[in-house]
């Protein structure tokens, strides 16, 4: 039998039983669509969280006061009492470390901000000019904190966009004086609006020079020291250098915790990788179910058509011809189903992205390939297996089923 | 040389504990161009014999020479080739493929044999004309009358120009008049040299054949060629 004839015969056979054909195509496409959508969800969640963490800054090494047992990321560190405080001098000393590019001390507290009678509570971050590049903060108006001696603390402030809206409305904010606590500060910059992220919401933040913040809160301790390493590769080295320098400054005591963003990211990445895998597992099950459906439909099809197979044999068809005809039909059904399912899945992922724009719900390539591969594989296998058996039947036996 | 030569053919079926001897120690010769009617009571083995002759079934014992070649030892695919080129079947219940048109059903043996489409088209057009089906070419079997269906089946059986046509009760599902018509078509083929073996219950139809075989209990009880 010639190839075009086999294909035409298979196509006619498929369209000759529309119910059966649409059932198997439907089963197949639902399976593939489930894989695509579910993995897009899982992987989207993973990418979303990784993205949020990356936006905290790149190549970040963070020093926390106090010693943590594991050295890993432990949110409890943020609130434990500190045996020895971190100081501005500690932060300045870290600039000596060869692997370090930038250092920003960070003191945090709450205060009140007011202008022309309007007053509200705000989070105040005391830091230096290098904090902005380390955290990838972008300015909507004006400039960042001035480069100056860390001990000087000029009376300036950079405010978040929401604060600007509330205090100034549509009036210009740059150059205006605001009152923060008992200080009068000049607004030099406004941060670009970013909305809610994983870190603190910078839209409602006021950033002032670190020594000014310490005076404001009447303390000389730091909440964190943020360090940007020269490169990703230099992170472990910087971490060790930072630890060493701080140990020297604290009379040989390791009373600080140094965490790298990498470790945090890796933990979350692992967690979310597991999530994606779990989602892929669910998807694989739906695909298996689709496969079994296709198998049943095909089995019924071959049983239904045993008589036809017998007739074809009586008319001189070899078993090879019969196998090929069924293979072609199974291939058509499963590729159509797989293609349809893929389109359906991509449409679903697209709809998800439309509904949740911050959520990068793209199916990963491996999932698409695995989904299509499994669908085609099961479709072909289960399409051909019963046909093989039928092809081996005695013609007279098959004919009697007509 | 005989077209068909059966020696000591036996065909048994196992039904649970009992063995059914559908054919037993059958010896038979049919020459090329003969017109043979196979008759006998129901269950006497007529269809079994025809299936063996058509290589749709294998005997449990004995040898079958078709055109001098032992065909019982051939592989399934070699047998398929013999069926494709040398044998045409006509069944009582037509056995047309319901989703294919009359023309496509007639072309099916050629399609399976890999004959090019142009050649197929030419031969099908001729066959449609020969069997008076010109304006039924695109009809599917369920849009045809019984007589038309059987004519399509006969056209299909002859399209590969076989040496042997096997018909198992070809008129069984037709009324007297259409049956007559179908028999005349088959006889016309025989007139052009095709060997024709017809299984029938109909005495008058059987009498029209040049040779009658009477079967009983899987044995050849009477052969008109031997008794003269
Ligand atoms: N596949 C089978 N399995 C078991 N027994 C069978 C099978 N095919 C035929 N037989 C038996 O073999 C015997 C001969 O059957 P066959 O079909 O050849 O009869 P027949 O002469 O064609 O009868 P009818 O005139 O009713 O068509 C019968 O007893 C039948 O029951
Ligand atoms: Mg019979």
List the main descriptive attributes of the protein structure presented here.
heterodimer, A: 402 residues, alpha+beta, 6-stranded mixed beta barrel, 12 helices, 54% helix, B: 228 residues, alpha/beta, 6-stranded mixed sheet, 8 helices, 37% helix, globular, binds adenosine-5'-triphosphate, binds magnesium ion
Main pleated sheet of chain A: 6 strands, mixed, barrel
The percent range for helix content of chain B is 25-40%
Helix-strand sequence of chain A: HHEHEEHEEHEEEHEHEHHHHH
Kindly report the average pLDDT value of chain A. Answer: 84
Description:
Chain B: Keywords: Antibiotic resistance, ATP-binding, Cell membrane, Membrane, Nucleotide-binding, Transmembrane, Transmembrane helix, Transport. Chain B: This is ABC transporter ATP-binding protein. The complex is a heterodimer of chains A (402) and B (228). By secondary structure, chain A is an alpha+beta fold. Helix content of chain A is 54%, strand content 17%. Chain A folds into two domains: 3-52 and 266-401, no CATH class; 84-254, no CATH class. Chain A has twelve helices and ten strands. The radius of gyration of chain A is 33 Å and the shape is elongated. Chain B has one domain (2-226): Rossmann fold (3-Layer(aba) Sandwich), CATH 3.40.50. Helices cover 37% and strands 28% of the residues of chain B. In chain B, helix 3 crosses helix 4 (117-130), helix 3 (102-113) runs parallel beside helix 5 (146-158) and helix 5 (146-158) packs parallel to helix 6 (176-191). Chain B is globular. At the A-B interface, helix 1, helix 9, helix 10 and helix 12 of A face helix 2 and helix 3 of B. Bound molecules: adenosine-5'-triphosphate (ATP) and magnesium ion. The site of adenosine-5'-triphosphate has 11 residues of chain B, from strand 1, strand 2 and helix 1.
